[in-house]
Each structure stands twice: as C-alpha cells, then as structure tokens.
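Here is one record:
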Amino acid sequence: MRRLHRSVIERINGWVHNHHIAFALLSIAGLLIATALVTFAVLYRAPQEAAAPTADAAPTVTPSPPPVYYSPLTGAKVPDHATTQLPVTGVMIENSLDARPQSGLKQAGVVFEAIAEGGITRFLALYQEEKPQLIGPVRSLRLYDIDWFVPFQASIAHVGGSLYALREVRNGSYRDLDQFFNGAYYWRSTDRYAPHNVYTSAAKLDALNQKRGYSTSSFAAWPRQDGKTAKTITAATVDTTISSSLYNGHYKYNAKTNTYTRYQNGAVHKDREKGAITPSVVIVMYVKESTVMQDGYREQITTTGRGKAYIFQNGTEQTATWSKKDQGSQLKFTDSEGKEIALDRGQTWITAVPANRGGKVTWNSAE
C-alpha cells in the first residue's frame, strides 16, 4: 500500500512538473508574441504620430513680398498702383535764348527735341508721376509733335500752333489743352516778356484734365531695365549736331549717378528750379526734314517709317533702328536682330536730328 501511494505521488509530481514546464513555455511564447505585436504597433503608428502636429505647433507661412509698381512712362518705381494709372500730359516748352532757363524740364519723363523754325529747337515734354510746380515757357505746337504724343494717349498743353497743327489738333480726336481756350489754367509771368512768359503747373493741368474727363492714359510702354554702369565706357561724351552751336547738345556721362549731364551753348543746361538736366537715356534719331509753306515757312519732319538711331545709356552706345507704323503706333527702338531695346529707368531724352541737312551725332570713350 505504501508503494502504491508513493507511485501515485511520483506520477502526480511528474505531471505537475511537466505542466509547469509547458506553462512556462506557453507564457514565454505569449510574452514574445505580445512584445512583437506591441513593437509592430509602435513602428506602424510612429510615422503617423510623428507627422501629426502637436497642439501647440503653428503652420509656417512665408509672407508674400510687397508688390512693386513702375511708371509706364519712365519705368521708375512709384508708390502704388493708382500712380501707374495717372494721365500723361505733354507740354510744348520753348528753347529760344529768351526762354532759358526753363522750368519743369528736369522732371519730365520723356522729352522730344526737334527744330521748330529757323534752327531754333523746341521741346515736347511728357509728364505722368512727376508734378512740377512750374512748367514753361509754354509755346506753340507743330504738326510732327502730334505724332509723338498721340501713342502715349497724352493731353497736350500749348499756346496755339502752326496752321496745319491747329487744324489737326482741333478736330475733336485729341486731348487738346490749348491755352487759347483754357486761359484760367495758364498765366503770364512778370519777369519775362511776351511771348516767352506763359507758364502753367502740374496742378493746373491735372485740374484741366479732370475737367475734360481725361482720368488715365493707356499706352504701350517702352521696355525698361535697371541701369548699371558698364565695365567698359564707350560713350563718355556725346555731341548732337542739330542746327547751330546755340542749340546743339553736348552730354557728359556721370558714372556715379549713371546719367548724362546735358549741355547747350557751352554751359550746363539747367532747369531754373531743379538744376542740371540729367537724363538716364539719350537717344538720337536720324530724320528727314524739309521746309514747307503753310502759314509761313514751317519745318516738316518725317515721323513714320524707319530710320537710324543711336542709344546712349550706362556709358555705352548702341546702334539701333527707330520705327513707327503710323500716327497711333508707338515709336520703337530695335537692335540688329529686330528685338526691342530696353531703356534704363528714368528720364529719356530724344533728339531728332535732320540727317539730310547735316544733322548727326558723335561720341567718345573719354572726356
């Protein structure tokens, strides 16, 4: 009996022992499986959790740069979009000896220079963002000036004009601001004698434009660029022969300001209020000129078609071709490949020299 009891106990102990081992093995296996599952879950969820922003994090926003606005007339920076929409106004400014020094020329965005009569030159000055307090002396209009200001959809301020010019500008198709019919917007100074003493101002012309309903100007702007002094200066001085020494132009390049200081009659050409006239770009157009009988002998200049031109900017010279299809088309300046040439931002001074009457331009790489 005692042997039987011992045998039963041994069998029970063996069963318990064996089951303890099996249970331990099962526990270890379960632990390994659970660990693998947790590890897989962590690895699977980690990218998702890492990608999700925390409650305190804010998305990064790169601010847009403020817009930059440029004048359609000069390419210069202007403060806002409204300034780019201002109407363009042209003013005929005299250049006889009795009219010097003029007022408002330095602030003009574009200036056309051409012979009016007897070799005496006259300026068509165009304004948009600049607002001179004094402009003049204001003089009469010529027919070819109309062809130059029309593409800018500009108003034109003048005191009468040649017969054919007045017939054209008064036909109702133009923004005519003739002093003859708008006397309140002009005045005669007392420090000069007639006819060299008619003046106006940007404020008066703006008021007259507003009265006429000329609130903006839409036109094809010339391509513009940021100017930079060239490494090699090829045009340190420029001389234009237009009629005589009293009216021929001379220009000296200033590398510090990247402009050309203008001279005439042996002295710096000065604006009475603003000092030396210093365009960023000087352009010389070769044109054909003739004298015709209208209300007296008048100069006639070819303004449409094409011809040779020279562009001076950044201290260099570039040979170009000017072209203009018709009165309403914008004047263009192209290179040898027919690509329109970009002009430096700032004042552009254009001189029409009569190539068929000895007009020309010369330049030198040194002063």
Q: What stands out?
A: The chain has one domain: 70-364. The domain at 70-364 is CATH 3.50.90.10 (YerB-like fold).
